[in-house]
């Protein structure tokens, strides 16, 4: 019986690990998993045991432990059989470059430099394989320290298993500035390549190192570079191997078409605001028609924005979402993220809290019914939280809306 069980286990892709009586259970599992499958593991033991002995040391009789992507299957003799299980982040979209982009990533905007390192650690150790960055978030150097410490062979995640995005800021659209800006992000992030580099916004600001060049009346000083000129140099970055894919952020459908009409390398991704109050169905359909994957930013409604309006609707407190959350035994955030990934949209929730970082990845163990997906779709009110604003005379007023390349004057 044991032989057939072992053969069955092997045929299911199990890994056999022999015990080492000279090591503690934790040391032993860590070292043999590292040896066998190249994983540096964090061991999570859950369960109640009656101290059944595994050779000389206690282990729960029915285990319930998961080690990154390994799950305990059986103990036979002095060996454990571990099954490779599907990792949450193995759910991905395939880009037009062939790259796999994990459906959930960690957002890093508003993540202070002194907290972002912990956030990255907490994300990587539980299986995040996708981090969304940008030069203008002013924290890429801290993220780079985290990458140096936790990314690489023998570390929490191998570089080739991590998907890192960064973005070209509005003051760097001039063709002569693009490569230097990309190299600065690479240097700060301590990486040799980016998986994806996006033009952050279609409209340019005045060139220079001040990310928000201002007039005396506090309005922004704009630039007039055509984003198609910027795109040509973005293509060069791919050819030089500095980035694997290039894409757009905050472009509308007309601007996407405009870039495609002049592109030798088509954009792989559009990153835009998207959540149940801004479902973006037309824009998503447009992107899919042209081979772009869509990433939803502010998928939880960005409640920690500094220009938040006290009267704005709070997505995380939506009664319909709350009802679905109670029904599934999940949080409202998980319902909204599940809705996105279930319709094939990548989502990049930001959190600095270890519990919420973990929660936001746990959206692959339940399914919303077709009716529930539709209910969430009907919550749309074309509500944009991310209309950039500036403070003039003590009041927040919309910024950029007069710029000819401002994207949100078109219907989608
Ligand atoms: N391309 C662009 O122009 C653009 C624009 C905006 C954002 N983005 C990207 O998208 C990312 C996400 O967007 P966002 O930061 O605007 O907002 P978001 O992810 O919609 O919301 C973040 C807020 O939600 C809270 N939160 C996180 N998980 C939660 C949970 N499970 N339950 C309850 N609250 C939760 C966070 O608080 P805690 O941190 O305290 O958990 C934070 O206050 C950004 O960080 C950035 O990487 C890109």
Automatic annotation (TrEMBL):
Location of the protein in the cell? Apical cell membrane; Cytoplasm, Cytosol
Residue ranges spanning the membrane: these are none
**Keyword entries, A-Z:** Cell membrane, Cytoplasm, Membrane, NADP, Oxidoreductase, Signal
What SUPFAM superfamilies does the annotation carry? Answer: NAD(P)-linked oxidoreductase (SSF51430)
What Gene3D superfamilies does its record include? NADP-dependent oxidoreductase domain (3.20.20.100)
Entry-linked PROSITE patterns = ALDOKETO_REDUCTASE_2, ALDOKETO_REDUCTASE_3
**GO:BP terms for this protein?**
aldehyde catabolic process
What class does this enzyme belong to in the EC scheme? Answer: oxidoreductase
Instruction: Indicate the segments forming the NADP-dependent oxidoreductase domain, all copies.
Output: 104-379
The EC number(s) given in the record are 1.1.1.2
Its Gene Ontology molecular function terms?
A: alcohol dehydrogenase (NADP+) activity
Query: What reaction is this protein's catalytic activity?
Result: a primary alcohol + NADP(+) = an aldehyde + NADPH + H(+); S-nitrosoglutathione + NADPH + H(+) = S-(hydroxysulfenamide)glutathione + NADP(+); S-nitroso-CoA + NADPH + H(+) = sulfinamide-CoA + NADP(+)
* Signal sequence residues: 1-17
InterPro entries, alphabetized: AKR, AKR1A, Aldo/ket_reductase_CS, NAD(P)_OxRdtase_dom_sf, NADP_OxRdtase_dom
Q: What are the record's GO terms for cellular component?
A: apical plasma membrane; cytosol
Pfam family for this entry, one: Aldo_ket_red
The record's family statement is: Belongs to the aldo/keto reductase family.
Q: What is this protein called?
A: alcohol dehydrogenase (NADP(+))
Q: Which organism is it from?
A: Scyliorhinus torazame
């Amino acid at each position: 019986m044991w032989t057939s069980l072992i053969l069955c286990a092997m045929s299911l892709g199990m890994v056999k690990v022999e015990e080492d009586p000279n090591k503690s259970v934790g040391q032993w599992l860590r070292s043999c998993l590292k040896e066998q499958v190249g994983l540096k593991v964090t061991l999570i033991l859950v369960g109640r045991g009656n101290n059944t002995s595994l050779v000389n040391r206690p282990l729960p009789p029915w285990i319930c432990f998961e080690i990154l992507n390994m799950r305990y299957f059986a103990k036979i003799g002095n060996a454990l059989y571990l099954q490779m299980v599907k990792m949450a982040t193995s759910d991905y979209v395939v880009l037009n470059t062939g790259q796999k982009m994990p459906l959930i990533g960690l957002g890093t905007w508003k993540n202070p430099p002194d907290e972002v390192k912990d956030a990255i650690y907490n994300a990587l150790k539980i299986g995040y394989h996708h981090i969304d960055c940008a030069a203008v978030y002013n924290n890429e150097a801290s993220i780079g320290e985290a990458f140096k410490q936790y990314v690489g062979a023998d570390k929490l995640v191998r570089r080739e298993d991590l998907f890192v995005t960064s973005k070209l800021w509005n003051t760097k659209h001039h063709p002569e500035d693009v490569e230097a800006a990309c190299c600065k992000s690479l240097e700060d992030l301590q990486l040799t390549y980016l998986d994806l580099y996006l033009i952050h916004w279609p409209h340019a600001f005045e060139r220079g190192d001040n990310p928000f060049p201002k007039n005396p009346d506090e309005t922004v000083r704009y630039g007039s570079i055509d984003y198609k000129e910027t795109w040509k140099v973005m293509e060069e970055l791919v050819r030089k191997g500095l980035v694997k894919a290039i894409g757009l952020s905050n472009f509308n459908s007309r601007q996407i078409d405009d870039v495609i009409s002049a592109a030798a390398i088509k954009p792989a991704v559009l990153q835009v605001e998207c959540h149940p109050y801004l479902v973006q169905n037309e824009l998503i359909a447009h992107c899919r028609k042209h081979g772009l994957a869509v990433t939803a930013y502010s998928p939880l409604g960005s409640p920690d924005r500094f220009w938040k309006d006290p009267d704005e609707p709070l997505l995380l407190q939506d009664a319909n979402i709350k009802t679905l959350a109670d029904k599934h035994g999940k949080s409202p955030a998980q319902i909204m993220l599940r809705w996105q990934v279930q319709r094939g949209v990548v989502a990049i929730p930001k959190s600095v809290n270890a519990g919420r970082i973990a929660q936001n990845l746990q959206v692959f163990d339940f399914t919303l019914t077709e009716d529930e997906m539709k209910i969430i779709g009907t919550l749309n009110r074309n509500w944009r939280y991310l209309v950039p604003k500036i403070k003039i005379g003590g009041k927040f007023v919309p910024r950029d809306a007069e710029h000819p390349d401002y994207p949100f004057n078109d219907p989608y």
